[in-house]
Amino acid sequence: MADIKEFRLPDVGEGLTEADIVRWHVQPGDTVDVNQVLVEIETAKSVVELPSPYAGTVTGLLVPEGATVDVGTPIISVDTGGDDTGTGTATVQGGNARALPSQQPATAPPEALVPAPRPDQRTQPEAAPEQRQAVLVGYGVKLGSTSRRARKTAPRRAASGQLAPPAAPAGPAAVPAAPAAVPPSPGPPGNGVAHGAALAKPPVRKMARDLGIDLATLTGTGPNGSITRDDVQRAAAAAPAGPVPSQGIATSAAAREERLAVRGVRKHTAAAMVASAFTAPHVTEFLQIDITETMAAAARLRALPEFEGVRVSPLLLVARALIIAVGRHPMINASWDEAAQEIVVKRYVNLGIAAATERGLIVPNVKGAEALSLPALAAALTQLAETARAGKATPADLSGGTITITNVGVFGVDSGTPILTPGEAAILAFGQVRDAPWVVDGQLAVRQVCTLALSFDHRIVDGQLGSAVLRDIGAMLTDPLRMLAWS
After folding, report:
1. DSSP H or E stretch at residue 206
2. Residue pLDDT, tens place only, 353-396
3. Of the residues 25, 282, 329, 458, which is catalytic?
4. CA 121 to CA 111: how far, in whole Å?
5. Contact call for residues 408 and 433 (beta carbons, < 8 A)
C-alpha cells in the first residue's frame, strides 16, 4: 500500500528563509534509507547536505536543480509503503545529520519534476493557527510564515494592443464581452511544453534568447522533456549562418556578455558588505613594518617536531600577535548592540580568517583562539583552510566570529582597506612580504617588508585605541620575542 510522504525544505539552523537546490543525489525510483543524503542545498552561508527523514522509494523530485525555494516548500516525495518504522525528522548540526522522532510532514500525491511555483502562485494547505511542519531542526516553521511581496502585473491589454476597459458591473444591464484572446497553440509533442510554455531553466532560456532560438520549436531531451543547453546549442549549430532578423547589433552585444545569478554565499556576502559599509563608520590605518625576524622565526618553527603535519606560515604569527593585542586592548574585540545601545566586549577570541572560495568570500573562525597553544593554533588554521577550500565549512564554522584577519598578500598586493565583518569591531589586512630598502641601525639594508592595515568601527574604537593596537601588532612582528614578553 502506497504511503507518499513529502519532505519540505528545512531551516538548517541558521535562520534562512530560502535556499538553492545545487545537486540531487537521488532520482525517481531510487530506494533510500533514513539519513541517506538526498540533496545538496546552498544557503546564504554554505553548502549543506540534507539527509532523508524517510526510508522508501523516491516517487518524484518536486524542485529542479538550480531553483531557489522557500523554507517549508516540498522538494521531494517518498513512498514509505505504509511502514513508518525508523521514519523521523533528521537534524543537521555542522553539516552532519542524525534521525530524531518527530511529526510527519503532510502527505500529498507524487509530482513530476517541474519548476518551483512562484510564491504568489502557491496554495497554502489549511492548518490550525499554530500548526507547524516538520523540519530538520527545532519545531519547524509556521505555515505561511515565509512570504514574498506579490509580483506586480501589467494592465491587461486587448488584442488590438490598447488597454482593455474595466469589466462592466454585474447586473441586468451588463453585456458579455466577446472573447478577444487567441488560445495558445500547443507545441509539438514531447518538447516539454507545459501550459503553452517550453519547460526550460532560466539559464537555458537566456541562452536561447541570445542565440535567437525559439524554444517552442525544440524537442527537449532533458528530464520530463525539458530543454537543455545541448538542445539549444545543437539548434544554433544547425541554424543558417548570418544575423538573426530583427535583433542585429543587440544580439551580438548580448553574445559578448555573461550574466551570473547572485545566489547563496555571494548573495549573502554582498548584502553583508553593503550593510557593514553603510552601518559602521569605517576608519583604516596603515603601518609598514620590517618583518624579517618573523619570517626567520616561521622558518625555524617549521623544523620543530611540534609543528609536524601542519602549515606554518607568517600568518600564524600574525594571528598570534593579533590575539595578544586583543588581550592588551579588549575594546578592539567588541560589537555594537544597536537595540540595547550597548557595546559588548568579548572576553574570548573567535578568530576569523577571510577565505576566497569558488562560491565567494567566506569567513570561518577558530573558536576560543586565545586559549590555544601555538602548535594548536597552527593545526586549527590548517584545518580551517582545508575545510574552506573544500567547500565544507558549516554554519557553525561561519558564525560567532569576534575579529578577523584577511591575508591580501597571497594575491600579490601590498594592502587595502578591508570592510568589517558584520558584528565585529576590527579587521586586520596582512599585505605581501617583499624585499625593500630599509634603514637598520643607521645603515641602508635590504629587508623583508610588509604593510598592515587595520579597519575599525569608529563608534567603538577611537583613533588612539586603533593606533595602539596596530602599533603593538607591528612591534611583535618586527621582534617576535615581544610575543613572549606580552603574552
Report:
1. helix 202-211
2. 998 877 778 899 999 999 999 999 999 999 998 888 888 888 88
3. 458
4. 17
5. no
Read off φ and ψ for residue 467, nearest 5 degrees.
-65, -40
pTM of the model: 0.55
Give all domains of the chain, ordered by start, each with its CATH number: 4-121 (2.40.50.100), 193-255 (4.10.320.10), 264-486 (3.30.559.10)
Contact 409, 431 (CB under 8 A): yes
Alpha-carbon dihedral sign for residues 221, 225, 230, 236: positive
Confidence at residue 448, expressed as pLDDT on a 0 to 100 scale: 97
Told to judge if 458 belongs to the known catalytic residues of this protein, a careful annotator would answer: yes
Reading phi first (left if > 0) and then psi (alpha if -120 to 50, else beta), residue 410 is in: alpha
> At residue 444, does pLDDT exceed 70?
yes
Q: How many CB atoms lie within 10 A of CB 331?
A: 17
Give 342 or 275, the one with higher predicted confidence: 342
Q: What is the pLDDT of residue 355?
A: 87
Please, are residues 215 and 208 in contact by the beta-carbon 8 Å criterion?
yes
Within 8 A by CB and 6+ apart from 52, the residues are: 7, 32, 33, 34, 35, 36, 37, 38, 78, 90
Distance between CA atoms of 353 and 363, rounded to whole angstroms?
Answer: 5
CB within 8 A of 203, min separation 6: which ones? 66, 229, 261
Task: Tell me the Cα Rg of the chain.
Answer: 29
- Residue 239's pLDDT band (cuts 50, 70, 90): low
